[in-house]
Amino acid sequence: MEFLQQLVFALVLGSSYALIAIGLTMVYGILKILHVAHAGIYTLGAYVGLLVVTHLTHNFWVALIAGMVASGLAGVLIYRGVYYYILRRSRIVPLIVSIGIFAAMNEFYRLVFGPYQHAFPAKLAFPMVITPYFVITPKQLLIIALTAVFLLVLYFVFNRTKVGLAWQACSQDLAMAGAVGVPVDRAVALNFLLGSALAGAAGILMAFYRNEVYPTMGNVVAYKAFVVVVLGGFGSIRGSVIAGLLLALVETFLGSLEWFEFPRDAIAFLLLIFVLMFRPKGLFGRL
Amino acid sequence: MTLGYLLTVGTFTGIFMILTLSLNILTGYAKQVSLGHAAFFGIGAYAAAILATKAGLSFWAALPCVVVITTVVGVFLGLPSLRVSHDFLVLSTIGLNFIVGAVFRYFPFFGGSMGIVNIPSPTFFGRPLGTVGYFGLTLVFVVLAVLTSLYFSRTWGRLAMEAAGEDETAAKAMGINVAKFKIYAFAISSAYAGIAGALWAHYVGSVFPENFGFDRSIDILAMLVLGGLGTIRGAIFGAFLLQVLPEALRVIQDYRMLISGAVLAIMMVFQPMGLLGKGSILHVGFQRAWKAVRYGFGRAPGN
């Protein structure tokens, strides 16, 4: 069945979109910053993973954890080092700063690791699913399963822990949350830590899946993740997960049509314009 | 260092000055931050290239058509700005780079990834323009762009645009047609960018999709932010600095995007008005110096 196989592809793609978009959604939900440099962190995760895989060990899990830790710390660094000082300015200021950081990060990767593509030679023992209707390769299964695990963890943290409660309070009203004793600064830093670690995980997973790492791998992603955030209704995590899967579905199925010659990456853009024009609060946002 | 090289650098700097002036109207005056300016630039360049190679029009005949095309496209691409808040507009303009690039790359009409080559150099009364002539031509357009910008900065239009950009609701309450002025900003801005694109296409002789990517958009914005958002002197100065410095110091050339990115981030944090904007270090310094010269040291009136 062609259809089911396409569905598997869409699920894999959508998982990566969702993982990146979650971090963006969390940052936007609390600080109202469009954190473009998030895509630089996605690339950072992939490169740190690459370093581990080429120099230390071929074990995928070690690379994943190293990449997530590095990405998470980088995210906190960007928040404490830069955003923290410009939060009170007009919203356009952090945005431009973020774009500047993103451009500088991309260039940094190019200078340090070279402009070419690296392979990602990690090894992983993971089962393969073969049915008469579709095949899920080990890498695909890994991405889908890991994303599911991450989402469950996130759901738990958000709804069952104090940190999650603090985040919810912060996203409703930052000043008020501070006034009733939420350690806002620490909550936001943790927010960056977790969101960035997920982006780093997405970077490694995609690097492993496509077997390539290159400096500008975040460019299209940066932009698509925002489309997902917009579709998902700005700051709703559930919304962005659904929107990520939806975008992947639309891209996969439209892209597989023979007569549909339009470049795949441009679909997101059209969707974005369409949604922003007719539902400015997002597909799943409350109007 | 030969004269020809200097003239080439000068011509490119001139083209980027027109681009920064163009972005200044959209981002400096109307406060619509655009990270897709290379797309407008590219549309101008491709329009000029196609008119020259496929329709066989001369540079002079094609130029008005290019301006009309880019203006119309600019209006069309400016439509989302009517519905979308500032920061999400930036996102749609980032997307603009990718979609325009994708269209140039995938549709055979635009030459695909092979681009369009063999764009003839313009002639002037039957004689081909050499490097010197082209530099002169660019200079004329830069002066025209500065003059029209100056004129525009003194009209109602600019005030209305600034008001609409600062606070839409307040502007509406004052009776300003916000939508109209936003679209005006896009139209004027992309008309300028179209001219810059045409100049580029005829000077370089070829256009490729990569010439007009996201990186270039960041470059243009960095120039404007460095010089000073909302000022004509800032636009000129920023384009000059970021175009000429990398040429003068070869070391910088390799770190071009790193510098553009860092410039954007650092300037916005520490000097959001730019080097020459109102209230910036240099501007205040110049004013003090000017006062000192005018009134004699230590006797400046007022303070």
Short note summarizing the structure:
Chain A has 287 residues and is mainly α.
Class from helix and strand fractions of chain A: mainly alpha
Quaternary state, please? heterodimer
Helix-strand topology string of chain B: HHHHEEHHHHHHHHH
CATH fold-level topology of the largest domain in chain B: ABC transporter involved in vitamin B12 uptake, BtuC
Radius of gyration of chain B: 20 Å
CATH architecture of chain A: Orthogonal Bundle
Strand order of the largest sheet of chain A: 1-2
Any idea of the CATH topology of chain A?
ABC transporter involved in vitamin B12 uptake, BtuC
Pick out the low-confidence regions of chain B. Answer: none
What's the total count of β strands of chain A?
A: 2
Strand order of the largest sheet of chain B: 1-2
State mean pLDDT of chain A (0 to 100 scale).
84
Most extensive interface: A-B, 44 and 44 residues
| Rounded average pLDDT of chain B | 85
Major sheet of chain B, described briefly? 2 strands, antiparallel
N-to-C CA distance of chain A: 39 Å
Question: What can be said about the biggest beta sheet of chain A?
Answer: 2 strands, antiparallel
Order of helices and strands of chain A: HHHHEEHHHHHHH
Could you give the topology of this structure?
The complex is a heterodimer of chains A (287) and B (303).
Chain A: H1 2-31, H2 38-56, H3 60-86, H4 92-113, E1 129-130, E2 135-136, H5 138-160, H6 162-172, H7 174-179, H8 184-210, H9 218-231, H10 237-256, H11 264-278
Antiparallel strand pairs in A: 1-2
Helix pairs in contact in A: 1-5, 1-6, 1-8, 1-9, 1-10, 2-3, 2-4, 2-8, 2-9, 3-8, 5-6, 5-8, 6-8, 9-10, 9-11, 10-11
Chain B: H1 3-29, H2 37-53, H3 59-78, H4 86-106, E1 123-124, E2 127-128, H5 131-153, H6 156-166, H7 168-173, H8 178-204, H9 214-227, H10 232-248, H11 250-253, H12 256-270, H13 281-295
Antiparallel strand pairs in B: 1-2
Helix pairs in contact in B: 1-5, 1-8, 1-9, 1-10, 2-3, 2-4, 2-8, 3-8, 5-8, 6-8, 9-10, 9-12
